[in-house]
């Protein structure tokens, strides 16, 4: 087995995710699709105190790009929406894979349970809504008025039609044809698929064994290097795997088993990354990217994996009651040259053109020096400029000395 140092394992992971080095040129629309295809899933979240998560995940990899390209790819049918690692965008080539999983393997997921309950109670209303879409075309939930006058109840207080649309989406009878101002536009799945298939034919998934193989190999390739126990979390495709369950793919040469310093268990690398593995083992992968990450970035969405790989204990706190938060509402991990060196609580005040850093925290053992401050100033400043909030407002920092260094570095950017 090849042996990797801990940092080289991190670099291999970041290379597979498209985060090892800054982009070499300005992003194009095809680069947005390529980034999604590389990750295989792009998690959706609607919180936008900075930017909605899918846009920020893409920004971390591509630098400045036009966010509307994401919606265009969806409307064209090159990507589609599904339940995978929560709600996600995915390349349409994986449509049959995720649909097979939804029909055969996700019956216990909350989205399917809720959809089943809705159909049990509201079969007539859902059938009528489906016929309305068949006759009149795609719809948004906002087109339907609330009839009960209520504010709460249901899924997040949704009105009946919104719950029914989501249930029909979960069951595969509807798909998301496009998004208007990030609102889902629902249409018959057969119509959305027919349009998408003019561009690409999805990979066929005939049985559960094919599905399991696709999920395992796909997750390992997206992760670059991983322990067996982290694999299924990537697509939420099952429980934690054991090493023995991967023997068949190792024996077939599709997966490579490696040793990683500090890991008690072996790691796994997809055969397609054999060249990257060789570069990593020889110390030739250099991490040079410094950038802010989304709280829902694949690098940090598995808390155990982020802790083992980066020594970074990360919990998403936007769903935690305010008194129980340790770092803040929308906390962005800071990636700096192959390490997660800190986190910052941020908010973009778009109307005022202000990017507010409420608080910034370095990890224990990370030294606040001029070099780090300069890299952080560039990461924060570039992100603020992309948000059209070029004025950076700094709050508190830990350690306190970092605030002075960072203010100086940001001022230097402004006068450069």
UniProtKB/TrEMBL annotation:
Record PANTHER family: CYTOPLASMIC PROTEIN
Organism whose genome encodes this protein: Dokdonella fugitiva
Pfam families attached to this UniProt entry: AlkZ-like (PF06224)
Classification via InterPro entries: AlkZ-like (IPR009351)
Origin: domain of life: Bacteria
Name of this chain's protein: Winged helix-turn-helix protein
């Amino acid at each position: 087995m090849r042996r990797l140092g801990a940092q080289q394992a991190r670099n291999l992971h970041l290379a597979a995710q498209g985060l090892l080095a800054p982009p070499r040129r300005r992003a194009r629309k095809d680069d947005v699709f390529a980034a999604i295809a590389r990750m295989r899933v792009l998690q959706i979240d609607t919180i936008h105190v900075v930017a909605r998560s899918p846009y920020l995940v893409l920004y971390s990899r591509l630098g400045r790009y036009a966010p509307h390209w994401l919606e265009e790819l969806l409307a064209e049918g090159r990507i589609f929406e599904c339940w995978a690692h929560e709600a996600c965008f995915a390349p349409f080539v994986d449509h049959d894979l995720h649909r097979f999983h939804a029909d055969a393997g996700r019956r216990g997921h909350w989205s399917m349970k809720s959809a089943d309950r809705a159909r049990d109670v509201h079969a007539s209303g859902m059938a009528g809504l489906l016929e309305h879409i068949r006759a009149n075309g795609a719809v948004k939930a906002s087109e339907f008025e609330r009839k009960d006058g209520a504010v709460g109840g249901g899924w997040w207080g949704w009105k009946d039609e919104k719950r029914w649309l989501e249930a029909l989406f979960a069951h595969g009878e509807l798909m998301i044809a496009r998004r208007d101002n990030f609102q889902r536009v629902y249409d018959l799945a057969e119509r959305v698929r027919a349009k998408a298939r003019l561009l690409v034919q999805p990979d066929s998934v005939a049985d559960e064994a094919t599905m399991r193989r696709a999920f395992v190999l796909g997750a390992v390739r997206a992760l670059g290097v991983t322990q067996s126990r982290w694999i299924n979390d990537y697509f939420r495709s099952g429980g934690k795997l054991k090493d023995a369950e991967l023997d068949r793919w190792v024996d077939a040469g599709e997966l490579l088993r490696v040793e990683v310093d500090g890991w008690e268990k072996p790691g796994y690398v997809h055969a397609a990354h054999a060249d990257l593995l060789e570069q990593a083992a020889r110390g030739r992968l250099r991490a040079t990217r410094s950038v802010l990450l989304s709280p829902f970035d694949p690098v940090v969405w598995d808390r155990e994996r982020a802790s083992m790989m980066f020594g970074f204990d990360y919990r998403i706190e936007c769903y935690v009651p305010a008194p129980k938060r340790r770092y803040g509402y929308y906390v962005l991990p800071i990636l700096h040259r192959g390490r997660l060196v800190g986190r910052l609580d941020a908010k973009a005040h778009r109307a005022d053109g202000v990017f507010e850093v409420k608080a910034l925290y370095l990890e224990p053992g990370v030294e606040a020096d001029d070099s780090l401050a300069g890299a952080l100033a560039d990461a924060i400043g570039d992100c603020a400029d992309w948000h059209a909030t070029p004025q950076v407002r700094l709050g508190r920092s830990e350690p306190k000395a970092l605030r002075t260094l960072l203010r100086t570095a940001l001022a230097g950017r402004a006068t450069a």
